[in-house]
Amino acid sequence: MDEKTNTAHSKSATINDVAKLSGASIATVSRVLSGSNYPVSEEMRKRVLDATHALRYSPNLLGHMLKSKTNKCLGIIIPSFQNPFFIQLTMGIENAAKSQGYVSFVFSSQRDTHTEQMLISQIQQLKISGLLLSATDHNPDTINAFLDTGASAVIFEADYSLDPRAINATSNMDENGYIATCHLLESGHKNIAFLTTPLTKRSRQMVSKGYHQAMDLYRIPPEDQTVFESNFERDLDDALFEFEAGKELTKQLLSSTKNYTAVVAVNDLVAWGVIHQLTQEGVRVPGDISVIGIDDIPQGMMISPTLTSISQSSYQHGYDVCLRLIERLESGNMIPNERCYRKPNLIIRESTRVIS
Length: 356
What we know:
Blueprint: H1 3-9, H2 15-22, H3 26-34, H4 42-55, H5 61-67, E1 73-78, H6 84-99, E2 103-108, H7 113-125, E3 130-134, H8 141-148, E4 152-157, E5 167-168, H9 173-186, E6 192-196, H10 202-217, E7 226-229, H11 241-255, E8 262-265, H12 268-280, E9 290-295, E10 308-311, H13 314-331, E11 345-347
Parallel strand pairs: 1-2, 1-3, 3-4, 4-5, 6-7, 6-8, 8-9, 9-10
Antiparallel strand pairs: 10-11
C-alpha cells in the first residue's frame, strides 16, 4: 500500500480520498457507489471499487438521506422482536425491499406507545418516505402527521380507523378466530375455551368475536362460551411474554370446575404456553385437550405435538405489501383506501383431534 493510501487510513476516508486514489471525479465515484444508471466504463468502475476497498471507505448513508429529498430506504416498526410472527413478516418485507434495491431499517416499539411515536418521528426526520407499521398506539395523530408530509405507509395492525392514504394490510382477525373455533366444533368439541392476552387490542377483540360467532353458529349457549384473559402485557427480559401468559391462563383453566376438551389460543406463542403447562400438569395434548393457535409460525412444527394453527402467510404477505408500497413510492400513484389482504388457511397438525 502506498503512502497516499496510508495517509487516508490515518482518518476516516472520504469520497474525496476515493476520487483521488482512483483518478475519478467525485461525481463518477458517487455514480458508481449509488448504483446509478449513468454510464461508467467497467475499467473506471473497477478502479473506484478497488479504491473504496483499499481505503475501507463507507458512504455516509445518514448524511445522504438528510441531504436528498428522496432515498431508497424503508422503515419498519413492529411491536416486538420476541414474536416469530413479526420476524417472518419482516423477512418478507426485507427480501422484497432488497429485490428492488431498497434498504430497510427495522425497529421495535417494545409494545410502548411513546416509543412508537418517537420512532415514527425519527423516521420522518431521516426523510424515509416509506413506513411499514404494526401499531400499538391507540391514536392516529402521529402516523397521520407522517402521511401529511407526502410519505406513504402500510398498516398491518392498528386500534384506530385508518387514514385513506395508508395502505390497509390488516388481517380479518375475526375470520381467523372463527375458522379456528369451527375446526374444533366440527371435530366434536363443545366445551371450548378461548385463551388470550389482554383484550385491549382490536386484533384480539376480533379473534374473540370470531370465537363467539362460531360458538353461536353451533348453538353453544353464551354461558358456555368461556374467555380466559391475562391481566398484563409487557416484553420480558428473560422470557417470552405471550408464552408465559399461556402458561398462567392454563393454570386458571385447569382450576375451573368445567371439563374443557379444547382451547383456542389468541396466537401461537400463547398456544405454546398452553401446551407446555398442560404437559407439566400431566394433561395429554390432544388426548385430553386439543389446542389450536393463530399465526402458523414455523416453530410450531418444532414442538411436540406439532401445533394446529391458522396460517396468515406472514412472510408472503410482508413481501407482497412491500412491493406494493415501493410501486406507490416510485409511481406517485396513491389509491385511496387501498387494501392488501391474504385469506387465512387452516393448517391441521397433531395438537387437535376428533372426538365422538
